[in-house]
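Working notes for the structural subgroup meeting. M.R. asked for a predicted model of this chain before we commit to crystallization trials. I am recording the input and output together here so anyone reviewing the notebook later can reproduce the run.

Input as submitted:
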Amino acid sequence: MSDMDQYLPLVDLNAPMRGMVCGTVVTSHHPDYAEGAIVSGLGLWADDQIGTPQTVHPMGDTRPVPVVEAFSTFAVVGPTADFGLLDIGEPKEGETVVVSAAAGAVGSIVGQIAKIKGCRVVGLAGTYDKCAWIQDDLGFDVAINYRTADVPKTLAAASPDGIDVYFDNVGGEILDACLQLMHFKGRIPTCGLIAQYNATAPVPGPYHYAMILMQRLRVEGCIVLDFAARYPEAIAALGQWMAEGKIKVRTEIVDGLEHALQTVKKLYTGANTGTLMIRVNDVSRVHRKPMGSVSTEKATLLRNFISFCHQRAVAA
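Returned structure, recorded in token form:
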């Protein structure tokens, strides 16, 4: 919604909000979309909406992963974690991986993939319950409550040999603390900047920015659109790990579209754990308003993204 150049077209004022959606086909005028079929893709925050082959795709058989878990994991967050960590972070067995917002949708999966790859994993989360979840249930080696701990001191103690990969979901002070501890030629996939999204004034850059030069660090932004052509391989890997019990996911579902605005605010206060979703109950209206015009380049990226999002690579 911010008035700045981004990786997707801006949401216009007074336009319906955009998001990943999953639902049932009520009426179909297309031979590939049977009534009663479950579809998912990019849509609107709405009770009902008109989908097209360019915006939604049939989910098919997601077994052994339940439909809700498949949508919540495969739509965006799982591939983001997979490509962000493995392609940009390039973790190696025995290395130390630090994850911020580690109890969130992306961070919780990042930490588990890092463990699968043989890394030592340190996660930062905002409550004792979240710390207990990522350490006791998800297998993180260390969990740090960033709201109560002295983060630079505690993080240094938890990473005595330094940090090889820092998966950044927040920016801000935690990024600064990690910069001081990064190993020579460490990697920082930058996936989110939750600490500054709602800032009303320019945000200062990292105070320890010089460490990028001194330690020859690689800092790279992670947008899942860039990996659209390889989406099926992420879904296949994630589905296999979930079926084997190596990756656990948690989904928080809030009933009622009328609660969407207050629910999304949880993302900015750390009130949610795992993937946050709204379950729409009222299907009395069909929203026919189009998403608006987009640039040719971004429209192509968007179509490619949607096209690959929901291939049933899991079945393979």
